[in-house]
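Example record for the data management plan.
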Amino acid sequence: MSKKAKTHDDEDFLKPRNAEEEKWHQLMDRHDRVGIRYLEAAQLRRKRRLTKAERKFLADFEADRKRVLRDPESISKKCLQTVRRELLLVETLIHEKSLQNIREDEDAALDHAVDCLSTLARTLRDDLIRYAEDGYPFACHAIFRDGKVLANAFTRIAIAYPEHLRKYAEQSLTMPSLRARNPAFTCDAGAIIAAIHLAEGHHASNIHDNRSRIGALCHQFIAEIVDLMEGARLEASERGRTNSKWLNFPALKGNAKAWWKLEMKKWVHLEFAKMKKNPRRNPALWQELNEVTDGGTDSARRAAFEKYCFNKLEQIAGKPSLAASIR
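Corresponding structural encoding:
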């Protein structure tokens, strides 16, 4: 089952939760592995009987925690030494394979090494985002500094190797980009977009700056959800999942109201709940909701969010076809 299909066929995240379940989902949403570990340890301490695996987990957790508290400096130094050493070995493996002109899809060891680097990069990325959201200066600095370096590299690599990026770019609404004070500076965006076929396979590719800031923010949010749902519909159809709700889900064209009632409103409410709990999740959008409601209540902000999101869904869905209107 693909990630898209699993996201929508499993709707546990939309069901009412107790405080501990809500905490667990929040930690999962932020990729907070340490927070999850602490939560699991707290749960196990309250259990009267533990399995052998649970006892080992709790013992390892307590040992790690005591070690960190006893000598934090040595932990940091040893971690850096270990990571650098193991990373050097992985990169050496990749180097040796490249000297032999071996491709990653032809060699299991090379494939695993590349996957190791990718996994490490994603893990560090998620950690930096989470720490930045919590206001850690070092993480904010890294996101700007390293984000700019990666975006700069993308502008060059996208022209040099567009064929390696198209699979992802065709399904993506946006791409890494650089911006200057002068809005006329595009950093060769037109050529890059054409080379990588940006959003050509996206189900809501016609995104643009709207007349208002809140309109643009809601447009991007709704467009991304629409693409996930269309992906789920397509997979259900291709795999013939007769028990999947997506198989009989109406086509988007002209069915904004049906989509809103069946699925989209749930996502909007879920996102609003996350922003309400942590406005820094999307501070720009939260600021706009405050302004359009003149600093009103949460109910007023949620109603405004619903209104703008539904308007964007109507724009994306368009009007029903003439044949559908006649029926």
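Summary line stored alongside the record: Residues 1-14 have pLDDT under 50 and may be disordered.
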